[in-house]
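Readers outside the structure-tokenisation community will struggle with the description of the input data as it stands. Showing the layout once, in full, would remove most of the difficulty. For illustration, here is how one protein appears when written out as sequence plus structure tokens:
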Amino acid sequence: MVHTTQPRHVVMVGIGATGFYLLYLLSTEKVEMTGRRRFNVISKALELEIGAESCREILYAERGKILSRNNQLTKMVDSVMRRLLPGTNMDKKGWQVYVIKDDDSANAFVLPGGKVFVYTGILSFCKDEDGLAAVLGHEIAHVVAHHPAESMSNKLIKLSAGIASSLLFDIAGHVSSLLMTMLYTLPSSRTQEAEADYIGLMLMAKACYKPEAAIGVWTRMHEQEDHEPLEFMSCHPSRYNRMKRIQGWLEKANEIYEENDCKAVRKNMPGFRKALFRTS
């Protein structure tokens, strides 16, 4: 209850808030491909270490279901990824694709450090290599923009607010935790997803994948989400807002596509094809 608040708690919270504000000012940085400013206190070294540990855990959990490097699907996913990477400022070393045979899981993600995981269940939403590029471009964009580090930093804000509320109101931080999730953490996630959509679209265009394919992929996913929630769609923006934004970005993406003479590139390179996503 409020009447249990002690003066020393108010002083402690005040000092903590001042310190955190100074930390926030010193720890804001710009996302290179969009110019958005965000809070981040996680070093690149720590982000990579967490990514490596997560990779080990996933490989152990999915053992027996990971397709070989010589598998047709693995080669195709790797090929699309390799075409997207030159559009980023990321070190190309260490990037590796893992395709997991699980037709019931429509999921894909990229860990810090460049470990790419694609579950075969998502391939039916992609339809072809352009669609696959939309998914991979989006996931690579999260790593390009260091969203994992930003998310971890945001959780520190939530934790700090919970501690402060528990000191002031003796409610163990439950209300504060809920409020911060509603007002800060989830909106931040939606901001990251929209940013990944934008960056991914530009990466597609630079790599000569058709930007319009992104609309088809996200539409198919959102339609499925109406019937059964998809793990891949967690915390993503609404279908209407997402499509409206992507439509607004298509003109710029198509300009990049034209500047790279992509029509001629696609005509002369047999690697672009209507792929049959066989999972056998």
